[in-house]
## 1
Amino acid sequence: MPKKRKPPAKAPESPGFALPNPEDLGTESLPPYIPVEANLSMQSAIERVKEQHEGQLLAIDGVVGVGIQQDTIGNPVIAVYVRDAAVKNKLPATVGGYPIVVTVTGDIDAYRAP
């Protein structure tokens, strides 16, 4: 007669993983929810504003670049890169309803591939 096999040993019970209670998490540090469709339309609008004002911004002595970024909570802003901090005083606070965020980069030299 074949030997009877022992049933496999059971793993010890573990407390498992419990999801936190959403009410305990708070929402003050979360960025606002922006649906993808709304975010895309905002990006298109800010791209148009950037294109409309880029030449004017680059014409200001000391401005070395213009781009689009997001602020710390995810809102689109116009990024203006400047040679030194004194240039900031020559810039408007907003362009086309979007705030300007200034970054001091110094001169930017384009790299040309050999």
## 2
Amino acid sequence: MSAAGSPGRRDRSLVALGRALREIRRERGLTQEELAQRVNLHETYISRIENGQRNPTWGVVLGIMCELGVPLAELPARLEKLAPTGVTVERARGWGRG
């Protein structure tokens, strides 16, 4: 079962979140392994977040954003820019609720 709760389907909002976090991480010149060490998570978990396969808690998202030195307020703009078709910040408010 996927992060969205149905087999083989990833939640678009999780894909957008992952894309945004990956973009920011790369802008900061960090590997997934380096970020994982800094936020005390496993590299595989970071990879799965970035690929839209995991639904991280707000605490995890806040920790990542803080470590990357990016204000949380920047995240919605990134989501809008990188979201797959049909995903908006308004629709993403229900992340993980299908």
